[in-house]
Amino acid sequence: MSLSVTYSRAQLGVDAPLVTVETHLANGLPAFHIVGLPEAAVRESRDRVRSALINSHFEFPQRRITVNLAPADLPKEGGRYDLAIAIGILAASGQIPCEPLQNYEFIGELALTGALREVSGALPAAIACGAAGRRQVLPRDSGAEAALADGEIRTAESLLQVCAELHGRESLPAAERQPASNEIPCADLADVRGQLKARRALEVAAAGGHNLLFYGPPGTGKTMLASRLPGILPPLTQGELIEVAAVYSSAGLADLRRRPFRAPHHSASPTALVGGGSNPKPGEISLAHRGVLFLDEMPEFPRHALEILREPLENGEVRISRARAQVTYPADFQLVGAMNPCPCGYLGEARCRCTPDQIDRYRNKLSGPLLDRIDMQVEVASMSAGQLQDAPAGESSAAVCERVRLARDIQLARQNKINAQLQGRELDGVCALGNAEQQLLRQSVEQLGLSARSYHRVLKVARTLADLAGEENIGAGQIAEAIAYRNLDRKSAQPA
Length: 496
Hints:
Layout: E1 3-9, E2 18-26, E3 31-35, H1 40-43, H2 45-55, E4 64-70, H3 82-92, E5 104-106, E6 109-110, E7 116-117, H4 122-132, E8 135-139, H5 143-146, E9 153-156, H6 159-167, H7 196-208, E10 212-215, H8 222-227, H9 238-250, E11 261-262, H10 270-274, E12 275-276, E13 281-282, H11 284-287, E14 292-295, H12 303-307, H13 310-315, E15 317-321, E16 326-330, E17 334-339, H14 356-363, H15 368-372, E18 376-379, H16 385-390, H17 397-415, H18 425-430, H19 435-448, H20 452-469, H21 476-484
Parallel strand pairs: 3-4, 5-8, 8-9, 10-17, 10-18, 11-14, 14-17
Antiparallel strand pairs: 1-2, 2-4, 6-7, 12-13, 15-16
């Protein structure tokens, strides 16, 4: 038979569309053509496949070879199609049977020796292959990543091993999950002395998944506090682990088994933050999916870069549109920022020389719509040497994490999501208030000039405070504390 059909998977964000590899051998002068919108690396697979077949002791057909990668309007890139093309040529030339191919999908780059090399995006491809009910064959080095998915995943070291599987002479080993490595543990919250208000805010933010902004003079512990947030968050569930691993797989980064903590430098471009490029890649907000995105010195980031965070903060995803493709990446992250109260950082002290105009320009780098989306804005005050020495050691991350876990369990049992994700009518039922609480909240919102979005976010924080206290209903104390966490978006330009 001079025609064969094999299957592979493209890489399009965290998706893996099916690619049908059709191989036809025709009479005529020897030639090798690949069609179907191949990029340069795919066109170069002609030489890799030819050498791999010859060095694996197969016969390379001296005929007119046409390989079609369908669908034709989907751009194909990288060396991930090498194995499928080689198998297609062998099947079309009668060197391996064609019948088993309909049950397999092949992904892998071929070395000139016939060995298989690791490819990016193995996990999304494995998930899609399992959903299609086929068996996937990929390089051994990609097996641990792909093994997170359900389905039949087989690994091979060379083209010869794959052909032995198709001939029924030798079975390929199943992909095995890599055991959790002994990663460096997160820094402990017990290292933070004093700063009880900031520690409390950090616990509340962790319990409800709320966005948080620390502001205060330099050296007060803003970065130290933010870096300890991952240590008090509950571990990833299996579903969340697969989501995070799929994003890192599509970016070609190492597998991650814990909640991400991303802290880009303030010189990062908008593309670095949200993703993009001619070949769209995930940005920092997607790499922080199900984890924490920490923006230190937040006003120093380009304003345009900060403004494009507004939509992902609401939707939990980012859509990247380019001429070649439109890609959607998940971006359900918890934003934590840190900033000084003025350009020099010492507002209110004798050494501060910042003018009111300089202070306004500095703070206005954070727009009102962006501050609206930050649930908690908390001052981290400076401490004297005596206060620092006398302050007792704080609670450990483990103790705080247990309270956070219990609060989240309450939320998941009640509404199947954390409080920060409540929307619309869900708030009316979950965050119902009594008459006294409604009156307090209404007066506070009117006096402070908070927006409707801020109103709803105050409700969410108050609901989290009640969950931490183990109370079914939101009380006036929780409303007052939630309002106290919103300082920078009030009518007054001065922080509390």
